From TrEMBL:
Coiled coil: none
Protein origin, superkingdom: Bacteria
Keyword Transcription regulation: yes
Keyword tags: DNA-binding, Transcription, Transcription regulation
Signal peptide as annotated in the record: none
The protein's name: TetR/AcrR family transcriptional regulator
InterPro entries with a match to the protein in the record: DNA-bd_HTH_TetR-type_CS (IPR023772), HTH-type_TetR-like_transc_reg (IPR050109), HTH_TetR (IPR001647)
Domain HTH tetR-type: 15-75
Residue ranges for the DNA-binding region feature of this UniProt entry: 38-57
C-alpha cells in the first residue's frame, strides 16, 4: 500500500485516517506477519507520526479488534435490513449476494490475515459469543425460513462461509484476491443454485 496522497497544509479526516491505518496494518500484518510488524512501521507506511497513530489505536491488538468489530457491525446492518423485508426468493438471493460482496471487500483481506496469523489472532481477539457464526445462523434462517431441512441449512451455511473456506484452500498457492473471490463465488453458487436464485455478485477487478 502506498502512502496516502495529502495536499500540503491539510489533514485527513479522522474517520479516513482510521480506515487508512486499518488498511496499512492489515497489509503489513499479512505480508510480514503480525509479530514482525511494529506500530512505528505502520506509521511510516502511511507517512504519519506515531502520535497520530496512537491517537486512533493504542496497540496492534486494538487495530485487529477494530477490524473484526467493523466487519461484524457491517454484517449486523445487512441482517437488520434483511429482517425487515418480506421473505421471498428475491430477498434470499439479494442477501446472499450482498453477504458475498461484503466478504469480497474488506472481509477477504481480513480472512487472509487470519489464515496467516492464527496465534496472534487468539491473543488479540479472544473467543466469545456473538461472533460470525451467530450471524451466519441468522442469515441462514432469513434465506431459507425457520423450518428448512437440515441439509439445506448446511448448504446455505457452507455458501456463506465460502470466502473463508477458499482463503484456507488458497494457502500455499499463488492465488490472489481476484482468484479467491472468483472461486468462492462459484462455490457458493453451486452449493445453493437449486435453493436460491443466482445472486448478483461482486465484479472481480
Amino acid at each position: 500500500m502506498t502512502k496516502t496522497d495529502q495536499v500540503p497544509g491539510t489533514r485527513r479526516k479522522g474517520s479516513q485516517t482510521r480506515a487508512d491505518i486499518q488498511e496499512a496494518a492489515l497489509s503489513l500484518f499479512t505480508e510480514r506477519g503480525y509479530d514482525a510488524t511494529s506500530m512505528r512501521e505502520i506509521a511510516e507506511q502511511l507517512g504519519i507520526t506515531k502520535a497520530a497513530l496512537y491517537y486512533h489505536f493504542d496497540s496492534k491488538e486494538a487495530v485487529i479488534r477494530s477490524l473484526f468489530t467493523d466487519h461484524l457491525r457491517a454484517l449486523d446492518e445487512l441482517l437488520d435490513w434483511a429482517a425487515e423485508q418480506p421473505h421471498s426468493p428475491q430477498l434470499a438471493s439479494e442477501l446472499l449476494g450482498r453477504w458475498l460482496t461484503q466478504s469480497g471487500q474488506r472481509g477477504l483481506k481480513t480472512m487472509r490475515f487470519v489464515a496467516a496469523n492464527h496465534t496472534a489472532l487468539k491473543s488479540a481477539v479472544p473467543p466469545g459469543k456473538g461472533g460470525a457464526m451467530e450471524r451466519i445462523d441468522q442469515a441462514t434462517r432469513i434465506i431459507l425460513g425457520p423450518d428448512a431441512p437440515l441439509q439445506d441449512q448446511l448448504r446455505v451455511r457452507m455458501a456463506l462461509l465460502s470466502m473463508h473456506s477458499t482463503v484456507l484452500a488458497a494457502q500455499g498457492t499463488k492465488a490472489g484476491n481476484a482468484d479467491i473471490l472468483t472461486a468462492a463465488i462459484r462455490a457458493a453458487t453451486l452449493l445453493v443454485s437449486d435453493l436460491v436464485p443466482v445472486p448478483e455478485t461482486p465484479i472481480v477487478d
